[in-house]
Structure formats: structure tokens, C-alpha cells
Amino acid sequence: GSATYLLSLLLASFPPHLKLKLYLRVADQEKDPLFWNTWAQRTLKNALTLQKLNQNTAKNLILFLGDGMGIPTVTAARILKGQLSRQSGEETQLEMDNFPFVALSKTYNTNAQVADSAGAATAFLCGVKANEGTVGVSAAAVRSQCNTTQGNEVTSILRWAKEAGKSVGIVTTTRVNHATPSAAYAHCVDRDWYSDGEMPAEAVQAGCKDIARQLFENIPNIDVIMGGGRKYMFPKNQSDVEYPGEKKHFGTRIDRRNLVEEWNNRMKNKNAHYVWNKKELLSLNPNSVDYLLGLFEPGDLPYDLERNNETDPSLTEMVEVAIKILKKNPSGFYLLVEGGRIDHGHHDGKAKQALHEAVEMDRAIGHAGLMTSIYDTMTVVTADHSHMFNFGGYTPRGNTIFGLAPMLSDVDQKPFTAILYGNGPGFKVVNGLRENVSTLDYEENNYKAQSAVPLSMETHGGEDVAVFAKGPMAHMLHGVHEQNYIPHVMAYAACIGQNIDHCMLSSGASSLSAALPSLTALLTLIRLLC
Fold first, then answer.
1. What are phi and psi of 10, to 5 degrees?
2. Are residues 35 and 76 part of one domain?
């Protein structure tokens, strides 16, 4: 994985004419059967090395969650990654492609055939399948019904890691109180209760807590928190530090609490820092930071294609800082990283935004790999659900992933793009006929790909998603599994949560084997004396 990452950096530095020569040389090689046989044999030899399983105890755990990153998205992102380096694309390897173990995850919620992010996050973080729209509660809880919360709370692997003495962190490109991250710390019957300003008055009166408040109250001292969602932490109508004149970014809290100020006061003697822009983040010395709260936008972070490089950190930059802080703990760490806007791009029908988000997450995966070791760090990459996204149309090798299929429809005699959605906002009829995409800039960043069924927002897909794993006990992720199996494997690998008996047995066995030579010598001496 690290070698591929370094090679991609090297290729990116090549001038275009050299890249073209390299591509043509590779294309010529592919005509020779020896090329494919050699590649396959090399892959075979690598596979044989996996027969010796890594059964170390995982000191560190990292979960990369691509929100909405179904298998078609993984494949398309792979092609895009290659094409961004002037390669054909199909033969490119994502960082996650280099993980030695792959499984499939069944994503359905307890009450939904096609999952939503909240119920799915409860599965892959808390180890329990749940209803759609709920976070950190079992399926006995009913969405939006406050009185079904108490007694139905379920805890997450982030909490298990914290209780075991590890440092813990959350990094996301969405709001830190969005569906995926919130399942790591909150117990809420409605994923949309970001602050008390979004809650029904009766739910507040009944004692239910908003998700932003739970971020700071449920699990004491989460070591690293980075993402968006600033407005949910501040009193209603308080102006935002970055966008002081824009009302849509004003604070939302009806209880008038300033959660950031409260956090600062509580953490003032603990080497804690609050930052709200990239400059502040990158000016920190991680060696002198024990706790970090970074809220870089009032809502979600911008798409990577639209990110202001001066003010907003990339996912890779956030991950680097997070690992530098967390790895100082000799007991290790648990880190949840969400590429959350892959999902948003697909919902908007904006495939280019979604795929660039996936490529950026893959870059972060590669960077994390350079900062950690497979000997003591288990890394898992997966998705919560898929989308109604796909690409096809018999496109030739090297066809730009955002380009046209090489044919016209034999029904309406119009061109079509390779990328299409089953449903979504890209459906458009002009004079009673499908819109002619050749009259549009279909490679523009915010182009909405055509869809079969008109919807204001495209929907999730229901097929299984991939799980990529490397590091200690990664071989336990194999075959087809229920989504809630994932945190159980990760906890087993790290000897946390309910899976610790095997650790005590193995440590006991190693202590016994270490003592055997001394015991044998003692018995021999006793025999001689007798």
C-alpha cells in the first residue's frame, strides 16, 4: 500500500509527454501474454505469504467509513484516481485494493431493506443492528419517540476503547453530529436532532438530549474531534466566526449554551486546543496537544473539489494530525474516519463530486498506512450502504469516467454518459424527450448525471458493500457477514469490550512457556537432591 502511494506521487510529478509514453508502453506490454502471466504469478506469491496469519494483538484500530461508497463507487473512484495521473485508470490500484482481506457486509436495518446511515452506523460501531434514523439505540427504540430511548441504549467500540485506556478520535467531512459519527457517542432516537433547536419541544421537555450535547457529555474527554457542525454548538442567532453576516450559519441552540466555551473551560489544564480553520490546525505541535476540537464549518465541510485550501483542511490533513496526537498513548488508539460527502454527492446526482471525495478518502487511507504498522494496527475500510449509482455502456479502455458511452441509444438515438443513476435529480425531459447530454458540459463538477426516475434526491442502494481489512486478525473479515459483525472483530483484535478472554489465555500461555525452562531445572534439581 505504501509503495503504491509513493509511486502515485512519483507519477503525478511526471510531465504529460512522459506519462503518455509510459501509458503507451504499458498498452504494448498488455498485448504480450507474459505480462499478464507474470503479474498473476507475482500476485499468487503475495497471496501465499498470507497463509501465515497476523494474530498479533492490535494496539491501534482505524475504521475508514466511506459514506455511500458502494462497490460501483469504489471501481469508478479507482479509474478516476488513475486518470488524474494521466493513466488509463482501470489498472490503477486504490490503497484499499492493496488490503489483503476482503468481505461483504449486509447493510439492511432492522426495519429497512435499504439502509440509512444512522441505523447502519449503529451496526458497525455498536455491534447491534437497529432501526433506520436512530443512533446508539437498539431496535426496541422507535424513531422520533423520545420515551423509547431510556433502557435501549447500546455502547460503541469507541467507548470500549476509551474504557480500555486507549485514546479515541473522530474525523469526518460532515458535521461531527451527523449520522455516522454520532453513533460513536450518542444515544438518540432521531438522527436529525443535531441541537435542541431541531428537536420537538415535547422531546426536550421529556429529557431527551440533542446529539451535539451528547458529544461532550456522554463519553468524557474524547481525545480528537474534527469535522463540521459549528453552528449546533452555539446559542441561537449567535453569528458565526467565519461567516458573521450569514444568518443560515448562526447558532441554533435554544438553551443558549455555548458548548465550545464549556469544553474550553473544562479542558483548560489538559493541553487542549479548539481550532476552526486550517491555519490554526496546522500551526499546532501535536506533541504538545492531548485533546483537540476542530470545527471547520457551520455545517458540513465543502466538497474537496470546492475546498478553500487556505481555510479548510483536507481529510488527509485532518487524519495526519489526529494520528500524531492519538499515537502518543502507549496503550494505543481507536480512530473513526468518515469520508461523509461521497454520500452527499450521490444524493445530489453529482457523481464527479462523489468520486473525488472517494479518491481523497483513499489518499487519507494511504497516508494513515505510512504513519502506522500492519503489525500492531488493524485498519478496516467499508461503507454504510451503497447508492443507485453505476457506470457502463461498453465504454472503451481509458474512456474518461465522466464521458459518453461510445454509442447512441437505439431507442431515442441520443448519446448517454457512462455514469447513470437509477433515480435522482438528473431526470429531465425536453419537448417530451430525454435531454440530449451532448449539448451539456457533462464533465463539469456539478453536472447531475441522468437518472431513470425523477426524484429531488437520489436514494441509497440496497446491495452488499465491501469490507477491506489489514493488520492483526484482519483474516476474521472474510466471506459475507452481517454489518454488526465488524466492531466485534475489531474489538477481538484489540482485546477490548466483551472479547478479552482469549487475550488473558494467550498471555497466560506465553507466561507459562516462559516459565517452563526454570520449572524444568527446578524439578531436575529436586530429583538430584532426593
1. -65, -45
2. no
Q: Is 117 a catalytic residue?
A: yes
Residue among 382, 360, 355 at smallest CA distance from 63:
382
453 and 471 together in one domain: no
**Marked catalytic residue, from 8, 85, 105, 117:** 117
In terms of Cα–Cα distance, which of 377, 407, 381, 372 is closest to 392? 407
Spatial contact of 398 and 376, defined as CB atoms under 8 Å apart: no
Q: Is 422 helix (H, G, I), strand (E, B) or coil?
A: strand
**Same domain for 182 and 202?**
yes
Whether the Cβ atoms of residue 411 and residue 95 lie closer than 8 Å to each other: no
Query: Per the structure block, which three cell numbers stand in for 438?
Result: 451532448
Name the binding residues for Mg(2+).
Answer: 67, 178, 180, 338
What is the span of the domain harbouring residue 428? Answer: 400-458
Give the sign of the dihedral formed by CA 17, CA 23, CA 27, CA 30. Answer: positive
What's the pLDDT tens digit per position in 103-142?
A: 999 999 999 999 999 999 999 999 999 999 999 999 999 9
Question: What residues are designated binding site?
Answer: 67, 178, 180, 338, 343, 347, 384-385, 460
Helix (H, G, I), strand (E, B) or coil at 466: strand
Q: Do 199 and 175 fall into the same domain?
A: yes
CB 73 within 8 A of CB 62: no
Q: What is the pLDDT of residue 515?
A: 44
Do 358 and 452 lie in one domain? The reply is no
Residue 355: exposed, middle, or buried by beta-carbon count in 10 A (0-12, 13-18, 19+)?
buried
Distance CA 45, CA 126 (A): 37
| Polymer length of the chain | 530
> Is residue 523 in some structural domain?
no
Q: Which residues of the chain carry a pLDDT beneath 50?
A: 1-5, 7, 9, 509-517, 519, 525
Residue 208 CA to residue 512 CA, distance in Å, equals: 51
What cell was used for 512? 507459562
Residue 510: inside a domain, yes or no?
no
How many other C-beta atoms can be found within 10 angstroms of the C-beta atom of residue 114? 16
Cβ proximity of 177 and 212 under 8 Å:
yes
What does residue 122 show for φ and ψ, rounded to 5 degrees?
-60, -35
| Whether residues 453 and 340 fall in one domain | no
Q: Is the dihedral of CA 345, 346, 350, 352 positive or negative?
A: positive
* Domain match, 232 and 378 both: yes
Annotated binding-site residues for Zn(2+) read: 67, 343, 347, 384-385, 460
Alpha-carbon span 300 to 341, nearest angstrom: 8
Q: What is the pLDDT of residues 335-364, one digit of tens each?
A: 999 999 999 999 999 999 999 999 999 999
Flag whether the pTM goes above 0.85: yes
Residue for grid cell 502471466: 37
Q: Are 160 and 488 spatial neighbours (Cβ–Cβ below 8 Å)?
A: no
How far is the C-alpha of 465 from the C-alpha of 292, rounded, in Å?
Answer: 32
